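During the second half of the funding period, the structural biology subgroup turned its attention to how the target accommodates small molecules. The most pressing case was adenosine monophosphate, which had performed well in the primary screen but for which no bound structure existed. We therefore specified the complex as follows and requested a full 3D prediction, including the ligand pose.
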Amino acid sequence: MIVVFLGPSGCGKGTQAEYLKQNHGFIHISTGDLLRAEQDNKTEIGLQIAEDMANGKLISDDIILALVNKQLDLYPESSLLFDGFPRTLPQAEALENVLREAHKEISCVVDFSVSEKDLYARIEGRFICVKCSALYHDPHRMPREHGVCDVCSGTEFTTRPDDKPEVLAKRLEWFKNIVAPVRAFYKQKDLLKTLDASQPIEQVREEILSFLHL
Ligand code: AMP
């Protein structure tokens, strides 16, 4: 099964993706995580994208598609969950082409709808595990044991440098302008399922599971 999560940063898609990965065997392909890994490893791409990432700007389609294609080659048989991709119409079209060649298709595009006020509140409390990037939120989603990551038992946490209100404002602006055609693209294909992502995590999860017939 191939699923796309569409929604701005902080809408909760990372948390839901983590659930599907842990409980339903999805390979979670987050282009944000792939880009951050390039930065952490100081690759050529990592150095090239540093400034745009820090400013919340979109990274070029060429770079994104190269990273995604690498993942598609790595996991030819798995259920895939795309998170934060596609974000532009050319990315959506390129994904269609690659999948068609592999005789695959997207089952569902989950559209996370959430107010700007909620997004700012979520971003403000967000922190991640340094070792495995598991997402937490103070006070809504704290690790079960204080200071210890639920997923990998790591004990170091950090915040993302682009999780600042002024950068979020830019990311939202880009999101609204650029993602609108992506949403329309999938709506036209009758794949788009919009949910109210301001609901509690469990309710959002139930809705996603029903969309995916899981
Ligand atoms: P995210 O972790 O999805 O919030 O992404 C963090 C940042 O990575 C974004 O603000 C963009 O700078 C970049 N990024 C992630 N995914 C994409 C994408 N599909 N296309 C372009 N830029 C992206």
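Two results from this model are relevant to the next phase. The CA atoms of residues 115 and 198 lie 7 Å apart. The first strand starts at residue 2 and ends at 6.
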